[in-house]
Amino acid sequence: MLTVLHPRENRLLAELGSTEFQRLAPHFELVALDRGEVLYQADGKMAYAYFPVTATVSVDYLLEAGGTSEICRIGNEGMLGVTLFMGGQRSAGRAAVQTGGYAYRLAAARLMEEFYLGGPVLRLLLRYTQARLTQISQLAACNSHHSTKQRLCRYLLQMLDRSQSNELTVTQEEIGAIIGVRREGVTDAARWLQERDIIRWRRGRVTVLSRAGLVEHVCECYGVVRQATRLLLPDLQTASPGMRSVWRASGALRSDQLATAERRAPRAGSHGLKADPGQALRTVAT
Which has the least CB within 10 A, 39, 131, 216, 232? Predict the structure, then answer.
């Protein structure tokens, strides 16, 4: 069944209080993100902060030899653009879409206005930043000390946490670059998991058959990051079904209509549609 994508389906935005959300809602734009699309180049200026809803974004460090190393991955639990309120205006790495989908974006200037007001938004963003630092430091430890099989299980579980499906679109070569091993190592680990009916892998598409099986074989890093997130953001949760029904009743734009509406009525300098606090996204007249 088709559903409306409410900003609060990003779990970080779901933590905002009503007053803060109402203040920011008119400035959110829903954008469609394609797999492989680059949102920021390394050392590039950051014009927007992004709050994924169904998309996931990877922040990579580009090596001089041409390779990449993933710094962190962001889905509907967080935001892209922490650097903005930590004192920088340029991205430390390249941010590219790993799973195509939708996100809400907010102009960097508007985010900073809200941040400098202090209060709940500032505290929420700083707590989220601490959770991100834990994720990054644990990733470094994991890639240095744990087996390929354990790292693959961690990666798949983290992707499941950000996905609405048990089927993931990713190649073994991409996973190898993310978890820091050669493609052959990923192939061996994936074969081991397939033999135990935990996953099924077919040409750039992996289906998780048993989440419990992944949990059984994952290293402690997955649990450490989840626990840190729970402690710093205890109320992090997905939007309620009631919230979705309110937005659907308000005449909102369905997710399947977004790209068509954007193509019909593009706005200069923007590829998104704005939301307002009392009503969801409206279709654009043609």
Answer: 216
